[in-house]
Design brief:
This protein is an alpha/beta fold. The chain folds into two domains: 14-214, L-asparaginase, N-terminal domain (Rossmann fold); 228-338, 3-Layer(aba) Sandwich (Rossmann fold). It has helices at 44-49, 54-57, 75-89, 106-116, 139-150, 240-247, 268-276, 298-301, 312-323, 329-338, and strands spanning 14-21, 59-68, 96-100, 123-126, 161-164, 167-170, 175-176, 185-186, 194-197, 200-203, 228-232, 252-257, 280-285, 305-306. The strands form three sheets. Strands 2-1-3-4-5-6-9-10 form an eight-stranded mixed beta sheet. The longest helix is centred in the N-terminal third of the chain and has 15 residues, at 75-89. The structure holds asparagine. The site of asparagine has 11 residues, from loops.
Amino acid sequence: AEAPVQQQKVAKPNVVILATGGTIAGSAASNTQMTGYKAGALGIDVLLQAVPEIHKVANVKGEQISNIGSESMNNKIWLKLAKRINELLAKPDVDGIVITHGTDTLEETAYFLNLVIKSDKPVVIIGAMRPATAISADGPVNILNAVNLAASKDAKGRGVLIAMNDNINGARDVQKTNTLRVDTFQSPELGYLGYFENGRPVFYKATTRKHTIDTEFDVSNLNDLPRVDIIYSHVNDDGRMAEAAVANGAKGIVHAGTGNGSIHEAAEPALYDAAKKGIVVVRSARVPNGPTIESTAAWDKAGFVHAGTLNPQKARILLQLGLTKTNDPQKISEMFKQY
Ligand SMILES: NC(=O)C[C@H](N)C(=O)O
């Protein structure tokens, strides 16, 4: 008689979900209420109970890092989150991470982690536009897709990924593009990296910009990040906001300029003064698409750095991390070409 075939049990990947708050953990008085709810009201256990299907895909453990609306995200939670992810991913028995987050600053946290996580294992960040209590809440399917992605070998080495509305976006290029709709996360300039097909992640593209294990940034000894302010330019801009940034101890200024990062002539003197004091000034644009490129104006001669396709809020993060290494504008300019 033939020997019985040994049932080979394939071990499921181990995924840790770190919850930070947001609408995905939001609770409203009724299932038709889509706004005016309390963000960050439900704990990680309640979120995961809504999606028992994740346990077929992976061994899932949840941890609560914070429970806030992401409009109130801060350096302290960022550093706690990054350090915890680095600690978890250093363990051989952790295969991937999912972070639940509010959508308002999700693109910022994603890019920050993209630059400071020291592992090529998958890190996926998600949120929701409808509270967990809403009819057709988008959180549960985003959680299921995210666990599939974090458990997938294909997601390795691609930087931090955003898994919302059946699309995969990369942390560097993703933006929240709509205040209310569930298809708000797009990479308008450079496009999606892939899609979910029946929950299975399928990649079509990868970023060529450096991230995770290839960056020079290390948060392990940081307890705070340098202050960098964003100044939004407009008609009749007069440079007072730049003066205020300097007076309040900014180490860097991101100027969200008009057009291709243009600066109002009345605001120029305050920014030149800031640069003379050793504050690094980055020119970015308030226009949602297109790069901010070098300029023949006196701006480049004053040492202002141009942000490329990073929007002001992402340029701010790269400048914060750059300033942990140097305050030489030329070296920071090199970083803007690589990351
Ligand atoms: N959809 C959301 O998650 C918005 C919420 N204000 C947050 O960012 O926490």
